[in-house]
Design a protein that fits this description.
827 residues, 9-stranded mixed β-sheet
């Protein structure tokens, strides 16, 4: 960003700069643009894309020289006050669309690896945001990394950049997002994680709109009919490439939607003359030699849009292909865009001879660029959203707290009124945050604000429905943090019913105020219910239940059993919906209170598990996951994502839910299995002291007092370390009243630190008692552990195994009745 707050970008594989022109429209400065073909780069120069001529960089991006030129331009702008490149846009060639494990031409793999060069440049530049645009199968296409590994492009982008960026890839038909012609493409957007709670990739995608018909775009008299070989006097680009006149009868009598191959007269069907004999052409594609329809969406614009024999090229009324200007309208390219180094006024003033000469020299290049272009309006919308987010006035948490205090926002009526009136013109996100902070009962109802970047990742895992009618339920909606994302995710579905439920009337009141500030898409019908979801009467079945259920516990209907609300929400969601996506406490993977639920989940398809660690909720020291389930499908593969360490893997569901182990092991791997084969498990039960505290112990070593063993005292080699100021002692009188005293002098039990990823096990210490930081391992059958066995518990091999056994958790890693299973013995 420059000192004047204007934004900058770098464009890679930029072709003629048609897409990037959208950034120019939004006031961005192009630092550098790279294109291999000089004639295409020249088009960018005609449009004054860069401020400096040195910014136009022609050359192979795999060469060090080309990269150094790009970096030199960035350095130049840095000296001018640009703190950092704001956006990198890359549209690398992606040859061949076979996916991983399919045979692939070695040349194609090399070409596809140009995306690797783009990623390397992004890693070097570290822009605030990056954008990839490419073919529909882009993310599943294979590339070859610098190390020689063949990997899908989508996985490689996330492996290489996911540690620093939030990343979302979506497949969109651009005719519903800014273009006027059908063009199904992939957009991958990455946002630096420094903005993770401010905005996310999902919020930068262009807006959905209904596709336009050919008549709406170029019909209704917008363009004058063209005579044979004519260049329109008032618009140089309204012209077409003539063809062999003997082909004209092939299309002359066609009505809209008809193909020349269907003419009854053989002479009017596409053919060629060989040795005086007519040989009919083979119809390899139904869209060739076909007159287009006025009142349907516009087909994709291809590179050979100058030929009758190409796809979707013939005008609905006239015996010609579409003109360049008509194609520009289809690709949402602005009228003022220059293909040659003249303004449209200058071009129109040329003589007919000059026009035809200039047109002939440039037509093929223009039309090829049109077929390869990114529609300008699609990129302009993204550029606009990026600018709005980066230049938005953000409200710091301290200011939000001041607002809450100064406006006395202490009850639902005052909060709702504040939200509706929005006197400070705050963003919807700020209003939602204020509502959450004001919710004095959020601990009672276990309602917490879900961070934006978590919701973005949840959206990445949700299904893309192809049906026309979709029903979605959010069972604990709160201030509605998920709602804008659900709008964006399903903007292309014909009609979505979104039911919003919350038990708290205060939250519902505030939610309604927030909804009044949100533009609700026309394809959404919203119903709001003040209900307890667990008692909410469901009518019909939902396609999706999504949200963040409460994390508290309550009495069941029988009042004899305490139940976890999130568990209850999950089970009901599965029963009423085809898809369920809930943010849950990570303990659902391992805690004994979820045993029944895990047994049920083994028989459903767990589509994905996203492990957010402690990043899920600000101010809460719990680990969360998002589990996405398909209740109508049988177990298959499960996609695992770890946010903290930025890695993804695909696991067989039966492998990670193996009932031979006491709970789900989502990171299980071959190394884990190798250790498992060496060991016999389920050897010990476990107890821990919950009574020894600072109040009943002392740091002074008094005569007759009993030594208290703590976790840090236990060393890898089995010895006990004395630590000044840490060691404590307890009087025999107090100790004998404690249940843990029963293990004093018991030589059959063992001790291990309780919460650690550096396990070590020692024999019980005579005349000492362990406190709660140490777990007591009690053999289920008499056993004496050898020195070799004890040393193994503190080995690198076992500790790596134990990490996976605890699902890489960092919070709830007490040695409990479940995890003690993994304290096995060598066979």
């Amino acid at each position: 960003m420059l000192r004047d707050k204007s934004l900058t970008y770098v464009s890679l594989f930029s072709c003629a700069g048609v897409g990037c022109y959208g950034f120019k429209q939004e006031g961005y400065h192009c630092i550098a643009t790279n294109e291999l073909v000089q004639r295409r780069l020249n088009v960018q120069k005609f449009n004054s894309k860069c401020d400096y001529d040195s910014g136009y960089i022609s050359g192979d991006i795999t060469s060090i020289e080309t990269k150094e030129k790009i970096y030199a331009e960035i350095d130049k702008w840095s000296e001018l006050g640009n703190d950092r490149v704001d956006v990198v846009v890359a549209t690398p060639p992606c040859q061949g669309i076979s996916v991983i494990n399919h045979k692939k031409n070695e040349h194609d793999l090399k070409r596809n690896s140009l995306v690797v060069e783009s990623i390397e440049i992004i890693q070097t530049i570290r822009p605030r945001i990056f954008i990839f645009e490419n073919v529909q199968a882009f993310q599943k296409t294979v590339c070859t990394t610098k190390s020689g590994e063949n990997i899908t492009i989508g996985d490689y982008i996330r492996d290489a950049l996911g540690g620093e960026y939030l990343i979302t890839g979506r497949i969109l038909n651009f005719m519903n997002y800014g273009s006027n012609s059908s063009r199904t493409r992939t957009l991958v957007i990455g946002v630096d994680k420094e903005y993770k709670n401010l905005f996310t990739p999902y919020e930068l995608f262009p807006s959905y709109r209904t596709e336009r018909t050919l008549r709406e775009v170029i019909g209704n008299g917008r363009f004058k009919p063209l005579e044979w070989g004519e260049i329109c006097q008032t618009d140089f680009y309204h012209a077409f490439r003539t063809y062999d006149l003997k082909m004209r009868p092939w299309i002359h009598d066609l009505k809209e939607g008809e193909s020349a191959f269907n003419n009854k007269d053989p002479q009017k069907r596409p053919h060629r003359i060989v040795n005086g004999q007519m040989i009919e052409n083979t119809q390899k594609n139904r869209d060739k030699y076909t007159r287009q329809r006025w009142d349907r969406f516009i087909q994709c614009v291809h590179t050979r849009n100058d030929l009758l024999a190409a796809q979707n090229t013939i005008h609905p009324d006239e015996d010609r292909v579409f003109s360049i200007r008509e194609l520009m309208e289809m690709m949402s390219i602005p009228y003022e865009f220059r293909w040659v180094d003249y303004s449209i006024e200058k071009l129109n003033s040329l003589s007919d001879e000059q026009k035809h000469k200039l047109y002939k020299e440039n037509e093929v290049n223009i039309r090829q660029c049109l077929g390869e272009a990114v529609p300008t309006e699609v990129m302009r919308q993204i550029a606009q959203r990026i600018r709005e987010e980066l230049q938005a006035k953000r409200t710091p948490p301290t200011e939000l707290a001041r607002i809450i205090s100064s406006y006395s926002l202490s009850d639902e009526e005052s909060i709702s009124c504040f939200v509706r009136e929005n006197p400070l013109d705050l963003s919807v996100s700020d209003l939602q945050r204020i509502a959450e902070l004001c919710n004095a009962r959020r601990e009672e109802n276990a309602a917490y604000y879900t961070n934006k970047f978590i919701i973005n990742e949840v959206m990445n895992q949700l299904p893309d429905f192809t049906k026309n009618e979709v029903r979605i339920l959010e069972p604990s909606v709160g201030a509605g943090a998920f709602i804008p994302f659900v709008f964006k995710k399903y903007d292309g579905v014909e009609h979505v019913t979104l039911d919003l439920v919350d038990i708290d009337a205060n939250s519902i009141s505030i939610l309604k105020a927030i909804l009044s500030k949100i533009k609700i898409p026309e394809n959404f019908t919203i119903n709001v219910y003040t209900e307890d979801f667990l008692n909410f009467k469901i009518k019909g079945r939902y396609d999706l239940v999504v949200g963040n259920p409460p994390y508290s516990k309550t009495k069941s209907a029988s009042k004899k059993k305490t139940i976890n609300l999130a568990d209850a929400f999950l089970n009901k969601s599965i029963a009423i919906s085809d898809w369920t996506a809930l943010v849950l406490n990570k303990t659902i993977l391992s805690s004994s209170e979820f045993d029944d639920t895990r047994d049920a989940l083994r028989n459903l398809k767990i589509s994905s598990i996203s492990d957010f660690g402690r990043y899920g909720f600000t101010g809460l020291s719990i680990e969360t996951i998002c589990m996405v389930l398909q209740s109508q499908q049988k177990p298959q593969l499960t996609n695992i994502y770890n946010l903290k360490y930025n890695f993804r893997l695909t696991q067989s569901q039966s492998y990670i839910t193996d009932s031979r182990y006491p709970y789900f092991l989502i990171y299980r791997n071959r190394e884990f299995d190798d250790v498992s084969k060496k060991m016999a498990f389920n050897i010990f039960s476990v107890v821990r002291d919950r009574q020894i505290t600072k109040k009943n112990t002392t740091n002074e070593k008094k005569e007759g007092y009993i030594r208290v063993i703590k976790a840090r005292n236990i060393q890898d080699d089995g010895s006990i370390l004395d630590i000044d100021g840490y060691d404590t002692y307890i009087s025999p009188t107090i100790c004998q009243k404690l249940s843990i005293a029963g293990y004093i002098g018991n030589t059959s039990v063992y001790l291990t630190p309780n919460m650690t990823y550096n396990p070590r096990v020692i024999s019980n210490i005579p005349d000492a008692v362990p406190d709660g930081s140490v777990a007591v391992l009690i053999p289920k059958k008499p056993i004496r552990l050898t020195r070799r066995q004890l040393d193994f518990f503190s080995s690198k091999e076992y500790r790596s195994f134990y990490l996976i056994a605890r699902n890489l958790s960092t919070q709830s890693i007490n040695v409990d009745s479940k995890s003690v299973f993994f304290y096995g013995v060598l066979k």
